[in-house]
Amino acid sequence: MILFGNSSTKKFGYVALALGAFLVFLNGYVFLLPVSLIQFTLGFAAMALGWRLFSGNRPAGFL
After folding, report:
1. Which pTM value belongs to this model?
2. CA-to-CA distance for 20 and 52, rounded, in angstroms?
3. CA distance 53 to 63
4. Which domain covers residue 56, as residue numbers?
5. Where are the transmembrane segments (predicted)?
């Protein structure tokens, strides 16, 4: 949403991100497990590709 959306979608993405972070800290139970850089990169790429497919834009290199 934040990377590939238009202006209003990006604003909504930032609001959702801030609200999520606020609710996590409001809960008071934050746990972070070690994640390797490759796991983070693959996860982020999967989310970005899924958003592009969901929004109707075809990613480069796919049909």
Report:
1. 0.44
2. 22
3. 12
4. 33-63
5. 12-31, 37-54
Token code pair at residue 4: 């590939």
Pair 23, 37 in one domain: no
Are both 37 and 62 inside the same structural domain? yes
Distant-in-sequence, close-in-space partners of 52: CB < 8 Å, separation ≥ 6: 4, 58, 59
Three-state DSSP class for residue 55: coil
Give ∠ CA 11-58-16 in degrees, rounded to 5.
20
Joined tokens for residue 12 = 């909504």
Dump pLDDT digits (tens) for 9-58.
Answer: 788 888 888 888 888 888 777 666 788 889 889 988 888 888 777 777 66
